[in-house]
Amino acid sequence: MKLKSFLQIFGAIAVVLTLIPLIAADFWWIRIFDFPHIQLTLLTLTAIAAYFIRFDIKWVQDYIFMGVLLACFAFQFGKIYPYTPFSTYEIGESTNPEAPQIKLLTANVLQKNEKYEKLIGEVARIDPDVMVFTETNTIWKNEISKNLDPSYRYKVEVPLDNTYGMLLYSKFELNNPQVRYLVDDSIPSIHTRIKLPGGDLVQLHAIHPTPPMPQHNPSSSDRDAEMMKVAKMSLERELPVIVIGDFNDVAWSETTSLFQSVGKLLDVRVGRGFYNTFNAENLLLRWPLDHIFTSEEFRVKDVKTGEKTGSDHFPFYAILSLEPGIASEQTAEEPNENQLKRANEQIKEEEKENQEKAKEAEEED
User: Fold this and answer.
1) Of 52, 158, 176, 288, which has the highest C-beta tally within 10 A?
2) DSSP state of 79
3) Does residue 279 have a cis peptide bond before it, meaning omega lies within 30 degrees of 0?
4) How far is CA 313 from the centre of its chain?
5) CA 175 to chain centre
6) Taking the domains of the chain in order of start, what are their residue ranges?
7) What is the DSSP letter of 94?
8) Are 231 and 263 in contact (CB under 8 A)?
9) On the CB side of 67, how many CA atoms lie within 13 Å of its CA?
C-alpha cells in the first residue's frame, strides 16, 4: 500500500512538472523545468511500469491515474523524440565529398577551470577550422593564445571576468567580424562572415545568452530576446548561416523552438541524438545546452561531443558540408505571423525591462 501511495504521489509530481513549463511566464523557476525532460520522461515511464507490474488495474481511480500518467509520458516523449535516432534527420547527410567543408567546435570552458591543458589537448585532437569558446577571461585567452597552432590566423577575442567572455579562432579568413552587445553591455556576441576554401562566404553568429537563474537573471527575458534578435538576423540572411554557442537553453524548449522557426534554421541534433553537453560533472542531470544550427544549404558529415576538459560542459563539434544545390530538399518553413509576433514581443519585453532598470538607476543617482 505504501508503494502504491508513493507511485501515486510521484505521478502527481510528474504531471505538475510537465505542466509547469507550459505556463506563459519567463520566471526562472518556471523556465528551469524546460531542462530535465529526458529525466522526467524516464522517471514517468518507470512509474508506469512499476504500477503495471505491481498492481492490478481494476478500479476507476487506477484507470484515471494510469490514463493521466500515460498522457504525461506521451507528451514528454513527444518533446524529446526528434532528438532520438528514431526521428528523421533535419539536416541530411553530406552527399558530395568535393563540397567545401567546415569543422566547428563550441566549448564553454568554465571560467574558474584551471585545467587549461585538457582543453588545449582536445582542440589538438579535434583540429577544428573554427572554434568558439565561452566563459573566457584574460587568463583563458592567454593560455589558449600561447598554445594555438599558427594555422589559426584569424581571431576575435572578447575576454571578460563576468563569465560571458567569448573567443573565436579560425583557420579561414574572417570577413567584417563584429562584436555586438544585443541585450546587455556586458554580454557580447560575435558575428562574422567566414570565407571557406574555394571562396564561398557563410555567416556565423556566436552567442552565449544569460541563463534564467536567480544568481544570473531572475527571468528568461534577456536570453529569449537575444535569441530572437539572432533569429531575425538569420531570417533576413543573404548568405548561408550558422548559429553556434552555449544557448543556456535546451533544444526542445519553447524558446529554442521559436528561435529555430523564426530563423528558418535546422538543428544538427535532430535524428542523430541528444549530445548532452551539460552537466559534464553529473551523469544523471545532463541535457543539451550547446548548439549548432544552420540554414538549409548545409549537410552534416559528423556530429560529436568531445572529452572532459575540466569544465562543467563537454565540447560540441560538427563537420558541415556546404551543398546549396540540394538545399531545397530540407528547406525550413517560413515563420508564421504568430511566431513573428511572439518573437517581437519577447524583444520588446526585454527592451522595456532595460528601460525600467535605466530609469531606476537614474533615480538612485
Assistant:
1) 288
2) H
3) yes
4) 12
5) 25
6) 2-83, 101-337
7) P
8) yes
9) 7
Say if residues 317 and 124 touch (Cβ distance below 8 Å): no
Q: Yes or no: say if 96 and 57 are a contact pair by the CB < 8 Å rule.
A: no
161-197 residue pLDDT tens: 999 999 999 999 999 999 999 999 999 999 999 999 9
Distance CA 143, CA 26 (A): 37
Q: How many CA atoms lie within 13 A of 236 on its CB side?
A: 7
Q: Where are any strands of DSSP class E within the chain?
A: 101-108, 130-134, 154-158, 166-170, 173-180, 189-195, 201-207, 241-246, 266-267, 290-294, 298-305, 316-322
CB 39 within 8 A of CB 284: yes
Looking at the chain, how many residues does it have? Answer: 365
Distance between CA atoms of residues 132 and 146, nearest Å:
16
**Cell numbers found for residue 271:** 535524428
Query: pLDDT tens across 308-365, in order?
Result: 999 999 999 999 999 999 999 999 999 999 999 999 999 998 888 777 766 766 666 6
Nearest by Cα to 256 from 300, 287, 223:
223
Strand locations in 61-217 (E): 101-108, 130-134, 154-158, 166-170, 173-180, 189-195, 201-207
Residue from 231, 242, 249 nearest 344 by CA? 231
> Under CATH, to which class is 101-337 assigned?
alpha beta
Angle of CA points 210, 216, 219, to nearest 5°: 75
